[in-house]
Amino acid sequence: MVLRAAVLRRLIQQWCSLSGLGVAAQRNNTRNLQTLSYIKNFRRRTWTPVPPVLIAFSIFGYSFGSSAKEVEDKKKNALKMSDSSVEELIPQSDQFFDENKYREAYEVLLNHPERDTNVEVIWRIARGYYKTAKETENKTEKAALVRSGFEFIQRGLGIDDTHYAIHKWYAILLDAKSEQDGMWERVNQLHRVKHHMVRATECNPNDPTSWWILGCFEFGIADMSWYVMKIVQKALKEPPTGTYENALECFLRAENIKPMFYTTNHLWLGKCYKALKDPEKAKHHLNIAATTPVKNYDDKKCQEEALQLLKKL
Fold first, then answer.
1. What pLDDT is stored for residue 42 in this prediction?
2. Phi, psi torsion values for 41, nearest 5 degrees
């Protein structure tokens, strides 16, 4: 059973998670899995995380240590935003997101009356929560942000299950939330995660990031070692499938739709070509990933990994 536990840990470490726009490998995954304590119930074959000490704070509240003037200013801004139309606020939110101001990207929408009913507002709030969580060091705050984002995107799915962005961010946040709920839960959610990734590409075949996250999933499954796959087969009976060829097709399709939409796509193209024994093409894409100017957290991590992979070619 100890061996099975070790193999499952390795499975989660190997499997690529939705980390960039939702889904490159979770960079802190190895560290988190090593530090989490688990209660093992071998008869039921379940894994339950030992509950952490929760630190109370409000996602929708104000920062700790805010002055009276800052609090008053935020209240005024909230009232002003609630009076603005969705048509005015959505471009503001998108601009904040493009400028890597993820917290502002969702906060600008939180006080609008349509935040619980308009899917265009809902998925942007969920997106902002996820990206903010990704760059947050505090584990308690990170977990709360992910769960808040998942609550919003779950609400959006109940309103409109034909919107590509709803499915895309549902897949991303479901994976992030299930990671918090333990290793076993994350494995059990693999099929649902892939289902929503595929639905996103079906609802909008021209969205490059939907193809990118599906490619990450395909690569992660293909990159599993045979003994890890045996464990997954015992756990799921019918594990999801994935190949390097399918992953490559997804990444190339994303790049054809919108060239250089995401530097990390070149990193994954390089990984695919490396796995498919095509070092020249692998070097080409890894060089792009390694030399593109860094603008945010994702770019920084992408560049670091690309440089490491180039040393091995």
1. 29
2. -110, 100
Whole-angstrom distance, CA of residue 186 vs CA of residue 36: 14
Calpha distance 69→133 (Å, rounded): 27
Between the alpha carbon of residue 23 and those of residues 198, 200, 202, 217, the distances in Å are 14, 14, 18, 9
Residues of the chain with pLDDT under 70: 1-83
pLDDT at 228: 77
Q: Give residue 110's pLDDT.
A: 95
242 phi and psi, to 5 degrees? -170, 145
- Answer yes or no: pTM beyond 0.90: no
Predicted pLDDT at 232? 79
Q: What is the pLDDT of residues 288-303, one digit of tens each?
A: 999 999 998 899 999 9
How far apart (Å, rounded) are the C-alpha atoms in residues 231 and 233?
A: 5
